[in-house]
Design brief:
- By secondary structure, the protein is of the alpha/beta class.
- The chain is 48% helix and 21% strand.
- Strands 2-1-3-6-7 form a 5-stranded parallel β-sheet, sandwiched between helices. A 3-stranded antiparallel β-sheet has the order 8-10-9. It has a two-stranded antiparallel ribbon with strand order 4-5.
- β1, α1 and β2 form a beta-alpha-beta unit.
Amino acid sequence: MTPIQLLIVEDDRKIAEIQRRFVERLEHIELCGIAHTLADARDLVEVMAPDLILLDVHFPDGNGLDLLRELRARDSSSDIILITAAKEVDTLRSALRGGVFDYILKPLVFERLQEAVSRYREHLAHLSGLNQLAQKEVDVLLPRGSAEESANREERLPKGIDALTLDKIREVVTAGGQWSAEEVGAAMGASRTTARRYLEYLVGTRELSAEVAYGSVGRPERRYCLK
């Protein structure tokens, strides 16, 4: 799997260092640079063309939302996760209009960043697997329905289980045969940990069955298949 190139844009050097350490713990992510000013960020984006940018809002030399708008105006392929202490609704509205992939409030928690990047990885994997769009594919990639409908769909699932990711897991295992969590994760572009969480949920709902198998070196491994 080709690593996702990630750029950190954060003026506070201590926070940037925390983010760097978090990023180094993520699977299939490669840090391509750290910018402490918007001017440096513009240069790095132009040179490195990162897949994903962790972007703050407030900088001594401007506003991160201005950089977001600049990137969208020139049709940059870089996606944005905004990481900010800004709790104003107008900031969120501007970020959503600019097409951010996610919006995370400071202080940043590793698990929240891990979740966001995992969803981004799964999003890219889904896009790369498409040859031609059908409406059902668009519905998977884009949020649909009212906020109330979305809430109703989500409340039927336990915390940490996302409906879109769950559907992707189902698509993989319905190909037949027995699957390990690592194999499912590789097939859908997610981590083994993420795949295992969803597979165990499907075992709990009795959609899948699981059994312990032993590899060539005797290491036990749970393998999943349709009932």
